[in-house]
Design goal:
mainly alpha, 14 helices, globular
Amino acid sequence: MARYIVRRLLWGVVLLVVVSALLYAMFRYLPTADPAKLRAGRLQSPKIIAAIRHDLGLDKSTLAQFWLYMKNLCLHIDLGYSYYSGAPVKELIFDRLPATISLVLGGAAVWVVTGVGVGIVSAMRAGSRLDRASMGTALVLVSAPEYWLGLIALYLFASDIGQLKVLPGAGSYVGLTSDPVKWFESLIMPWLVVAAGTAAIYARLVRGSMLETMGEDYIRTARAKGLSERRVVLRHGLRAAINPIVTILGLDIGVLLGSSVLVETVFNIPGIGRLNYVAITHADFPIVQGTVLLAALFIIVANILVDIVYAYLDPRVRYS
């Protein structure tokens, strides 16, 4: 297992280099806004633009820029400086990271508990009205875009513009260390919106997997030994049926950590997704590069963790 993890980590480093190279090629050779002109504003004389390009290092060749970037990243974990504000990209990302982690991990907890619970109940009552209602609701939630669900939630429940005025609305986010109670209240609606579609997918996956698993021979053997139905379902059935969920959970968390821009924009949460959105509108390449690399890192680590957990849940899986 140790050799497998080391090998995966080394391949992860190679993948990060490849992602960086592709991003450099895309931003340099595909049509995009000129960061020097955007930073110059109204003072767009050729002399000023040339000076800005020199200060930003844009007058060097693409290969030279990429080599300098990778050297600073590997030796100093330096992600460069924002073209627009001049602030260090690493500091900008780390300042926004707690908000995104709070959103994603809280949403993940909600969608796992809800999705697995609904899937188990639907599988145990397959064909009933409850099963049809839950799976129909799941289909609706899977089809609904996150930004639409967020706007509907704000219209119905936000304390400022909502019809019921139950929960804090957009722009109410505060850090966990500042006020834990307000932090929790401000994230209830974003958590539910983030979790809605994914919980629906998990519920359908768990239901299908449970229906297949509960018909296996070892389940009938467990029942024949006199084990209670609850123990058969939770200890024997669920452990085998949960494998598909474990496979996609790490990927879902890793992807959402790097692509939570829609929910963060709707609820005005100062996270990485919002930072990346603003950077794209200003052609701020170093920030986009840093956030994409961070998202790729999350996905790589999540894949490795999924493999480890999968090997624990399924004794048949062995890595070398």
